[in-house]
Amino acid sequence: MSYVPHTREEVKEMLKAIGVSSIEDLFADISEDLRAKSFSLPEGKSEFEVKEHLERLSQKNNSFLISFLGAGFYDHYIPAVVDALVSRSEFYTAYTPYQAECSQGILQTIYEYQTAICALTDMDVANASLYDGGTALFEALMMAFRITGRNKVIIDGGLNPLYQKMLFTYTANLPLEIIKLPPQVGQVERETLYQHLDEKTVAVVLQNPNFFGTIDDYTDIVEQAHSVGALVIVSVYPIALGLIKTPGEMGVDIVTGEGQSLGLPLSFGGPYLGFLACKKQFVRKMPGRVVGATVDKEGKRGFVLTLQTREQHIRRQKATSNICTNAALCALRALIFLSVLGKTGFIELAKLNYDKSEFAKTVLKKIPGVEVLNTPTFNEFTVRISEDANEVVRKMLTKRFVPGLPLGKFFKDMNNYLLITVTEKRKKEEILRFAEALNDAINL
Amino acid sequence: MDIPEGLLYTKEHEWIKIEGDTGTIGITDYAQSALGDVTFVELPQMGDELKQFEPFASVESVKAVSDIYAPMSGKVIKLNEQLSTSPELLNQSPYEEGWLVVIEISDEKEKENLMSAAEYKQYLEGLSA
Amino acid sequence: MQLIFEKSVEGKRGIKIPRSDVPEAGEIPKGYQRVKAPSLPEVSELDVVRHFTRLSRLNFSIDANFYPLGSCTMKYNPKFTEQIAGLSGFSGLHPFLPFLSEDLVQGALEVIYETERLLGEITGMDAFTLEPLAGAHGELTGLLLITAFHKYHGQPKRYVIVPDSSHGTNPASAAICGYEVIIIPSDKDGCMDFKKYKERLNDEVAAVMLTCPNTLGLFNPHIKEIADLAHKAGALMYYDGANLNAIMGKIRPGDVGFDVVHLNLHKTFATPHGGGGPGAGPVGVKKELASFLPVPRVIKKDEKFVLEENLPHSIGSIAPFYGNFGVILKAYAYILLLGKSGLISVSEHAVLNANYIRARLKDYYHLPYDRICMHECVFSAVKQAKNGVHAIDIAKYLIDMGFHPPTMYFPTIVKEALMIEPTETESKQTLDQFIEAMIEIARLAEENPQMIKDAPTTTPVKRLDEVKAARNPDLRWKGE
Fold first, then answer.
1. Is the predicted pLDDT of residue C391 greater than 70, yes or no?
2. CATH of the domain at C263
């Protein structure tokens, strides 16, 4: 089985037209010493068998848990229309829309997606998508590096530790000095940050809400950074933007984020959606594809990939990024999600997350041995417990609860901390049972 | 192909018009026609020091980017700001409204490395042959 | 067509948000609130369905059109793999779960572990990481590994060699990794000029990046010598796997001297391109480089799959988790379905189809490198250009005839290039129809060139003003 449709007769005719006598003749250039030394793969199976095998594997995963786990990747409800519409193979079996006239569908969706991202973030322009929130942040950093020509970067300790690790990996060979502020559950310690901020600073990299769930207003940091010519990059959680102050309102220069929460399944880590938006004046330094509106020769509106001279296929080693394939279909998911929620629904969804999380806080606060850290949050918050968090997790899992992320995995001295997320999917009754189970796990 | 007298030319199709110790720099008619519709011009900063035959600006069309090389060395003292909103001036008027920068010439002797209009014309004929 | 934003009517609602079962919490503290509501569309669910269904119909796609886009391997994307990726036991899996307990995700970890092993056998590499999220991301990962390798051996290097026919991502990835790029021209056979390569190779070269077969669809018979010389100079060999579809079971990069390879699962392994992504770009290495691979690694310990986080030489993390798992699943299912002979058959027929097109069109179009090709062939429209019909015009006329055009103007070393990659899943009937269309265009280019230059006429829009788009970028809707 290989989805090759030819009959034996057709193969013969084709070989004849080529002027060779066998398929093997077509590989004559490959001398014996270059041939594959081994190719010991299993023989093919039927569709039915493969599906059965994978269904079996999927059942080896435990997906029947009541989850309070988030930490940058969230379990939100995905409306049925999202799956139904992205499953249209006119979308998913198309390539990057190089040929505009026969790709108006995907091009228009990208233009609409760019518009939606600008609306969420209050920024001027957005690109057509990047791989994920972490790579988007790296791209933003490279962009700031090119804009400022400087070499010192300040990273807040409240940035997702996975993204911190990615940034360190990517910049290991570049002439960049990275200053990492200590992690802190609460808002950014301004004093410490300003000590490092100077005329050599490329950018300050922040997250809102930060990894521990705390929300902040960075307007003052933006002003300070701009006063020394540095840029501010903020990674955001898009659902939170239904309620919290936007990066645009704060004057942020480049905004990135993980778009998974906008209608993408968690899917064990990908595919996800990196978004990037910035101020108008930086548009020609932006990485990745961008779609623009224009007119055809009869004056009718249409859409094209534009500003392509920034990209690798034209500028090669001088390109603004090496990215080619991005996350177009994921961007389409986000656009459909945002469209079907709409202006009012999106804010209501955010409010529901906030309300549930605040409710969970009030319930958990009553448990002896649980301290809910007192910072403003959206749908995620940090608690200190009187026991080792790993131990609590182990006990809770036996009761089918995923109680959040034990922060000791990433931060020294935080073995007693849990990061708890409450999305709209958690019912009141689940939150109450969760609190009960947590009480048992700690106090029994 | 328009090749005005009185300007000096490079093999990379730039021109310079020398007036006293300053020089106005642009790209030739041949260059603009080869580039096609110019969509964006990236100019140096005021005060930048250009070095003869080294790139100092770039010109973009829809699917190409070309470096522009300095005909002579010198400090940038004037930029054609109009190009940021009207890059098409490079196509419409490469020798007049489409100029790029004015420099303060640092070494007048460098002009010996450039071609006159007649020489440039001959050079172009050689290219197409 | 109107934008979804233009269809917005104040007060309209799409999906209903559940009523809250908890007390209202009051507002977000002052100073942290959003001031102005985001201007998202206000439309009904049916508005949304109709909007996107209609948009989908303005697109060419593999499922509706022959799509011979060179270098992109637009083969049929099997439907059952979509179902597999959608199984709730996979799609609902939170990536942090194994940080709590690996017991919760044994099935998913097994998929990763097994896919790595299968890709290793297909390419002849000793270890794989599935973390890279696309081909170019794989290149960057590969170069980071190569850099780590040289640094570990106390010999940091400065240059990366690429041929002039390479994909643009190769030099771009090298530059992002901090390297200077040395470009080697192609020789008269369309391969990297061996003599010039020897001249430019030196002990400061970190890697030689090659696509094999190259972007002209040609196999370089000197591949082993190139690799031997590179190794002698202390450089590593990087294999750009964009064109693996040509050689499965015939050659393995690992056997002919490549040290690092990336694959594009969205090309060779039939996962859909999604209108530009998501893809996946796994990277394989020889054992000398295995200790540098990004973490976490999935390993098998006492019959259980676990994550290994602490590898002292690892470059770190290049993706948040384990790669584009949803894409990996589809590729894994595809490999299991095809198996050994299926994969060999893929490459044999991909090459057969490309050569069939080459043979049948070479009397009509200039073929700059007239030899047996691999999975794609590159023509030049120079003959037609004499009558004013350029590669782009041919492309647009093909659209009117219902075919997605080939890749145009790439590789850049061929004037008026038309790069055709039919893939193995296309029938002889489809190929014949395409060939007839191309012959018809060649005839029209002689007799009625204007007809071609007016194309396309059957599409929702005519040729678009790309100059206007680039001069005054309009990148989002700003309201009336």
1. yes
2. 3.40.640.10
Sign of CA dihedral A133, A137, A138, A139: positive
Q: Which residues of A touch B63 (CB under 8 A)?
A: 308-309, 314
Across C73-95, average pLDDT: 96
Report which residue type is found at A17.
A
Residue C52 covered by a domain: no
Q: What is the CATH number of the domain that holds A323?
A: 3.40.640.10
Residue B15 three-state SS: strand
Q: Within this chain, do residues C153 and C265 fall inside the same structural domain, yes or no?
A: yes
Residues C456 and C80: their CA atoms lie apart, in Å, by 35
Q: Which domain holds residue C94?
A: 81-337
Contacts of B37 in chain C (CB under 8 A): 467
A28 close contact with C: CB closer than 8 A: yes
Give SS3 for C306: strand
CA atoms within 13 A on the CB side of A28: 8
In a domain, A419, yes or no: yes
For residues C474 and C465, give the distance between their C-alpha atoms in angstroms, rounded to a whole number. Answer: 12
Contacts of B39 in chain C (CB under 8 A): 467, 470-471
Closest Cα partner for B44 from B31, B36, B34, B54?
Answer: B54
In this structure, are residues C408 and C417 in contact, taking their beta carbons and an 8 Å threshold?
yes
Per-residue pLDDT at A63 exceeds 80: no
Same domain, A200 and A221: yes
Cα-to-chain-centroid distance, residue A375: 25
A3 touches chain C (CB under 8 A): yes
CA B69 vs CA B49, B52, C100: distances in Å: 13, 7, 59
What does the pLDDT look like over C70-81, one tens digit per residue? 999 999 999 999
Residue B53's identity, in one-letter code, is F
Last residue of a domain, one of A337, A369, A398: A337
What value of ipTM does the predicted structure carry?
Answer: 0.97
State which residue of chain C sits closest to A348, comparing Cα positions.
Answer: C17
Q: Which residues pair with residue A372 across a beta bridge? A: A383
| CATH code for the domain of C454 | 3.90.1150.10
Task: Give the separation between CA C328 and CA C326, rounded to whole angstroms.
Answer: 6
Beta carbon pairs, B and C, within 8 Å: 14
Best of C19, C40, C429 to disrupt the A interface by mutation (most A CBs within 10 Å)? C40
Chain C closest-CA separation from residue B82 CA (Å) = 13
User: What are the DSSP calls for B54-90, one per residue?
Assistant: SEEEEEEETTEEEEEE-SS-EEEEEE-GGGGT-TTHH
CA nearest to C410 within chain B: B63
pLDDT value for A319: 87
DSSP-derived 3-state class of residue C119: helix
Instruction: Give percent of chain C with pLDDT exceeding 70.
Output: 100
- Chain B environment of C463 (Cβ under 8 Å): none
Asked if the peptide bond before residue C296 counts as cis, ω within 30 degrees of 0, the response is yes
